[in-house]
Amino acid sequence: MSLLVIGSVAFDAIESPFGKTDKIIGGAATYISLSASNFVHKTNIVSVVGGDFPQTGLDMLKENNVDLEGLQIKENEKTFFWSGKYHNDMNTRDTLDTQLNVLETFNPVLPNNYQDCEFLMLGNLAPAVQKQVINGLHNRPKLIVMDTMNFWMDIAMDELKSTISMVDVLSINDEEARQLSGEYSLRRAAQKILAMGPQYLIIKKGEHGALLFDNNEVFFAPALPLEEVFDPTGAGDTFAGGFIGYLAETKDISFSNMKRAVIYGSAMASFCVEKFGTERLENLTAGELEKRVHEFIDLVQFDISLVNS
Amino acid sequence: MSLLVIGSVAFDAIESPFGKTDKIIGGAATYISLSASNFVHKTNIVSVVGGDFPQTGLDMLKENNVDLEGLQIKENEKTFFWSGKYHNDMNTRDTLDTQLNVLETFNPVLPNNYQDCEFLMLGNLAPAVQKQVINGLHNRPKLIVMDTMNFWMDIAMDELKSTISMVDVLSINDEEARQLSGEYSLRRAAQKILAMGPQYLIIKKGEHGALLFDNNEVFFAPALPLEEVFDPTGAGDTFAGGFIGYLAETKDISFSNMKRAVIYGSAMASFCVEKFGTERLENLTAGELEKRVHEFIDLVQFDISLVNS
């Protein structure tokens, strides 16, 4: 197997009711690959940073089995920067600042070594860039998972739909599913979105869990009720990284294995929010992950024997 | 076993994006007992209506195995009336009108036949009235489940806490749990509320499911993703009726059986919202219920084998 991730590697500055960070390392590809590294031995990433990106950040990624051959470093430019502030409920946030910097002209280049890609995770980026990566692969991967956000629905809906039609799994949140489909009911939204091309749809509902749909089935994974949510930044990407990392490790893309992958993704996301930024993900142990997955099993496990089972 | 339910029997007038009703039959005791009737052979209710309450309403309750000996009919007064309007998201609503009428002076009287009560469901009413019913029973029931709402937290918090301290299971929604505990995190809210006396706490999250807590464990039951939610009125009471009805039928109040009861309650609530008022509950078949419970099993069932399981 080989897992390829594209997305931003960035600086974030975060304010939450629990405190405030200076510029810390973030970005979709960062969270996805750190999360996936708990399942696969190597994650290839295609992304771009500026000359201001610290060596310690690169080292941290390498130590987490992230291959950086596909990471362009533009010495005379600046890294993508996002700044946001969370409200008291931690579910809503305001963007305070977005500086595209190196992302403005990002042209994803695939190293030859990355052509063996079987699992492709398209982190949130312009849909045209996501499509360029799909088209740059000589062989279609076994599975393409795509994340996106409402921003592209507002300004590039046609390009977005075109890219969505090329992927196997689309991962978006509930509000985005409603915007993309024009349907309030998530069940109806899923029907319309699956008709756009993907075989599977994941609808992320933050603290309310995640739904996995195909044309016949629906699966629900709860979020773990946590005592404290410290910083939700990157939780969706961490979920996606756990999801595709688990699938890439097990090489099984059946619906029943995708259900397991959703649970592992949810478990990873539950760690992400416990500390600011990527801190909680950087040194996570296999034992901690297993314990957390147990908590998910206990959380939803019940035993009903029906006459006609 | 014997199941006793107290709560309002009322008229509701409902507006939703799907339409508008005239005065239809509603009330906490109505929804609870209709829902419980799918599990037990007889439900005793203690409530009050006015002379304007139609015979057809009484007949409908009787046909659903509701014993009306404890239902006071005050010929010269009017039945409790509530009117509300749901917003487009169906999760929020405005109260348009509340006329207490007979409820203003409601003095619950327990028929002697009801003294064998083993399972007591205190539907939403003034906490002083709920307490009066507990004190009116010669023997403490095996299980007392209490529902309440934010209204009583606003105007009668001390009386409410006093009544809460006397029950085994408290059932409230997420906002009410936050208000009652002063904690935003539901996990922390649960700790504080369980310290007030109840052994178990159910936190209802509407379309996001329900959580069951005791001091050691937490269980999560999803809500079924529905194509259409027509009218959420009574969903919480229907949940409670299914929950206590299942427990009363099985006579098992262990945590693992309460988990099943939460699933049955959730299944009942999923029917309630499919039509206006009590319509969907009045003629529900055992086969429909079993099929629905199967959908809940399929929705959350996954199979992960961990090394240290």
Structural class of chain A: alpha/beta
Mean pLDDT of chain A: 95
* Helical stretch tally of chain A: 11
- Helix % of chain A is 25-40%
Show unreliable segments of chain A: none
Largest interface: A-B, 42 and 41 residues
Number of strands of chain A: 15
The global form of chain A is globular
Give keywords.
309 residues, five-stranded mixed β-sheet, 23% strand, alpha/beta, homodimer, 36% helix
Provide a quick synopsis of the model.
Chain A is α/β, with parallel strands linked by helices and 309 residues long.
SSE blueprint and pairings:
The structure is a homodimer of 309-residue chains.
Chain A: E1 3-6, E2 10-16, E3 19-20, E4 24-26, H1 28-36, E5 43-50, H2 55-63, E6 66-67, E7 71-74, E8 81-86, E9 93-99, E10 119-122, H3 127-136, E11 143-147, H4 150-155, H5 157-164, E12 169-173, H6 174-181, H7 186-194, E13 200-204, E14 210-213, E15 218-221, H8 235-250, H9 255-272, H10 279-282, H11 286-300
Parallel strand pairs in A: 1-5, 1-10, 2-8, 5-6, 5-7, 10-11, 11-12, 12-13
Antiparallel strand pairs in A: 2-3, 2-4, 8-9, 13-14, 14-15
Helix pairs in contact in A: 1-8, 3-5, 6-7, 8-9, 9-11
Descriptive report:
- The structure is a homodimer of 309-residue chains.
- Chain A is of the alpha/beta class and 309 residues long.
- In chain A, 36% of the residues lie in helices and 23% in strands.
- Chain A is built from eleven helices and 15 strands.
- Chain A has helices spanning 28-36, 55-63, 127-136, 150-155, 157-164, 174-181, 186-194, 235-250, 255-272, 279-282, 286-300; strands spanning 3-6, 10-16, 19-20, 24-26, 43-50, 66-67, 71-74, 81-86, 93-99, 119-122, 143-147, 169-173, 200-204, 210-213, 218-221.
- In chain A, the strands form two sheets. In chain A, strands 1, 5, 6, 7, 10, 11, 12, 13, 14 and 15 form a ten-stranded mixed sheet that branches.
- The longest helix of chain A has 18 residues, at 255-272.
- The termini of chain A are far apart.
- The model of chain A has no long low-confidence stretch (mean pLDDT 95).
- The interface between A and B is large, with 42 and 41 residues.
